[in-house]
TrEMBL record:
The keyword NAD does not apply. Residues 1-25 form the signal peptide. InterPro entries: TPR-like_helical_dom_sf, TPR_rpt. Residues 314-339 are annotated as: Disordered. Keywords: Signal, TPR repeat. TPR repeats lie at residues 255-288. This is Tetratricopeptide repeat protein.
Length: 339
């Protein structure tokens, strides 16, 4: 496989703009769109985040709008996110999101703590007497519960997720500050809003994936060029991939060379080629996590392609109305023929 600079630049334009030419470890840049957790939301282009009930409803609704608004593919918003149902003309298929968010706070005794303090010093300011003080402690527990539902224009449920999470912090009377309930709730709200965003929208991610570096069982004439290829990953990964491919052809069935060649396929979007080489790596070394992780990334990318195709598809025309007109025309034509 030829790794041409032009084709690579097009395929991984996002990665090239973010990942520096030289990185600290022997890695290859993978830039890709990975699937949302759920497929059904893919058909919607506009989301109306309505009112959430509960004492944390307003906070959760706001953070969810923000999280969904930050979902972008190639710099473009994935959803049009609104807070009311006044849809404009020409807006894509819409869904409505609502639900509940409640927080509960509990403070309970949590034992004691001791602190040894100096109570008397000599003329040289050296402590000559200590005293141990005992302080009572409490456990602050915050629980966040709720539910998120998404309905389509027919009021049919297309997404439903409940949540319940708890956080606790222990504090004692000798501390200068106590935990903030507001901060704890905010952290929980942010985390769950992000989880819902991951359910509803794909994510575009740029990451550096480590190549394998082991030369165990590698033929001696290949070791020096392999070492050179590893160095090239820091400055010219296209050249490194070309060398990994050549070495893999020279010694088929070597674990390191097979995996690295597969990673090169993944980098340029040859997903079928990458799958074949990752599966071969697993055959050579069953149970290893690095080819399994590669296969998982590719499965997510392939699923994301299907989601994006649905999301960006042109809205289907109203077949029902046209079908009715067609029936009328057919009946008229048949009536005329009978006459």
């Amino acid at each position: 496989m030829k790794y041409l600079s032009k084709s690579i630049a097009v395929t991984t334009a996002v990665a090239a703009s973010i990942i520096p030419a030289a990185v600290s470890a022997e890695t290859l840049p993978v830039s890709a769109v990975y699937a949302a957790g759920q497929d059904a939301p893919s058909e919607f282009q506009t989301l109306v985040v309505e009112r959430f009930d509960g004492n944390e409803g307003a906070k959760f609704a706001l953070e969810l709008r923000n999280a969904l608004s930050r979902a972008r593919i190639d710099g473009e918003n994935y959803f049009e996110v609104r807070r009311d149902s006044g849809l404009g003309e020409g807006e894509g298929p819409a869904a409505w999101i609502n639900g509940t968010a409640f927080s509960e706070v509990e403070r309970l005794p949590a034992g004691t703590t001791e602190e040894r303090k100096c109570v008397r010093k000599d003329a040289d300011k050296k402590c000559v007497e200590y005293r141990t003080y005992t302080y009572s402690c409490r456990e602050l527990t915050v629980r966040l519960t709720g539910e998120v539902q998404m309905l389509d224009a027919r009021d049919e449920l297309v997404y439903d997720r409940g949540f319940s999470t708890t956080g606790s912090q222990r504090y004692c009377r000798n501390q200068s500050s106590v935990p903030s309930v507001s901060d704890m709730v905010t952290g929980m709200v942010d985390r769950f809003a992000w989880e819902v965003r991951r359910d509803l929208a794909p994510i575009q991610r740029n990451e550096d994936i480590r190549v394998l570096e082991s030369r165990k069982d590698m033929e001696k004439p290949l070791r020096k060029p392999f070492k050179k290829a590893l160095k090239l990953t820091k400055s010219d990964w296209a050249a490194a991939c070309a060398e990994f491919d050549r070495l893999n052809e020279a010694q088929p069935g070597h674990i390191t060379l097979t995996f690295n060649a597969g990673l090169c396929r993944e980098v340029v979007g040859d997903l079928e080629g990458a799958v074949e080489l990752y599966q071969r790596t697993l055959e050579l070394e069953p149970g290893k996590d690095y080819p399994t992780a590669g296969l998982s990334r590719i499965a997510s990318r392939q699923r994301a392609e299907e989601q994006l195709a649905i999301h960006y598809a042109e809205p289907a025309e109203e077949q029902y109305a046209s079908g009715e007109e067609g029936d009328v025309e057919s009946e008229t034509a048949a009536s005329g023929a009978a006459q």
